[in-house]
Design a protein that fits this description.
15% strand, alpha/beta, 41% helix, Beta Polymerase, domain 2, 6-stranded parallel β-sheet, Rossmann fold, elongated, 4-stranded antiparallel β-sheet
């Protein structure tokens, strides 16, 4: 009997540079790295221990953090992959980026010969399950994080974001997430200002922007289109009195301000100014909570679809493939046989 397994860990502690053939003894193996995890999917003629995979991922012979890894075998592995690819196991429920990542990883593994018939069948079925979860439920509808809500609102205000100029005031985790989201929507002019210059430079490098001295951030308001503020100032940094002269010559160019600081960095009265759109963290979280509630209602429907695919996969392939069904990895894959395996 062939052993099918998945071993994973957060991307913060596992290196994605590890080669796909992660452990000797695997008939098939591939690594699925995403924003929040790194997972090894493998099939072997004998049991492969978790520590052996940990050593490969950590590139070390000492296993001090083995307890941080999780493991799924057999049918649990199948179910886990289907949930991951469908977005049910994501930090943002229903996100679709993972599907594209999984497809790319699978194609690379197949091209290199590391994904044989069993992983082919497993991933092809995972893609089918994900497609049905997306088409039969509303789990992907709406934004569910502060950053994604902010970006959606920015799109509604500006349309195309490629020409927008953005200033990040503060360089925390939420600022980074929102900056990445804006960058993914085409924003290329991102400026970062923080009391700690080093932190500003680090975040600016992440989003290919530029750092601005904290003493000069207010001057940027005359040029920027979007201001994301997240500092620990303790009192408003931006008031109508400060902002008015800075935006006097903006004409018809709106200024979109996202204030996610607690206490707030921007005085509420700023929202009453012409051409200014101000959203604080409460309003953004309220919008996100509404979308998240909708997605959560669809989780049960998604789980039912996945359960059907897991059951059918088990019925078709029994113990998820036997050693006799494997083609030699070094000899390449019979494409006709692979296509027929999913008919």
């Amino acid at each position: 009997m062939t052993n099918l397994f998945c071993i994973g860990i957060s991307h913060h502690t596992a290196k994605v540079e590890t080669r796909e053939r992660a452990a000797s003894g695997c008939v098939e193996a591939l690594i699925l790295p995403t924003c929040n995890r790194v997972e090894v999917y493998g099939a072997a003629d004998s049991f492969i221990g978790t520590e052996q995979i940990v050593r490969c991922l950590a590139e070390s012979e000492t296993i001090e953090d083995a307890g941080a890894f999780y493991r799924h075998d057999g049918e649990d592995c199948v179910r886990h992959l289907f949930r991951v690819v469908s977005g049910l196991d994501s930090m943002v429920i229903g996100e679709t980026e993972i599907l594209g990542q999984a497809k790319k990883v699978y194609e690379n593994a197949r091209a290199s010969g590391n994904a044989g018939p069993l992983l082919h069948r497993l991933f092809q079925r995972a893609f089918r399950a994900a497609k049905q979860v997306r088409s039969r439920t509303e789990i992907t509808r709406g934004a569910v994080s502060v950053g994604s809500v902010a970006v959606e609102l920015a799109v509604k205000i500006f349309g195309d974001l490629s020409e927008c100029k953005v200033l990040l005031l503060g360089a925390g985790e939420t600022s980074e997430r929102t900056a990445r989201a804006l960058s993914s929507r085409g924003v290329i002019d991102i400026r970062v200002s923080n009391r700690s210059p080093g932190r500003a430079e680090m975040l600016a490098a992440v989003v290919r922007g530029r750092a601005v001295p904290f003493t000069e951030w207010s001057e940027q308001c005359a040029e920027i289109d979007i201001l994301l503020s997240s500092t620990a100032a303790g009192e408003p940094l931006l008031t109508p009195g400060i902002l008015s002269p800075l935006i006097r010559d903006r004409l018809d160019r709106p200024l979109f301000i996202i204030d996610i600081a607690v206490p707030r960095d921007v005085a509420p009265e700023v929202n009453e100014m012409d051409g200014v759109f101000l959203y604080d963290i409460d309003s953004l979280q309220s919008i996100a909570a509404q979308s998240l509630a909708l997605r959560r209602q669809q989780i049960a429907a998604g789980e039912e679809i996945i359960a059907e695919h897991v059951s059918d996969f088990r019925t078709r392939y029994g113990q998820f493939g036997g050693a006799a069904k494997y083609l030699p990895v070094s000899g390449g894959l019979d494409e006709a046989a692979l296509r027929a395996s999913e008919l």
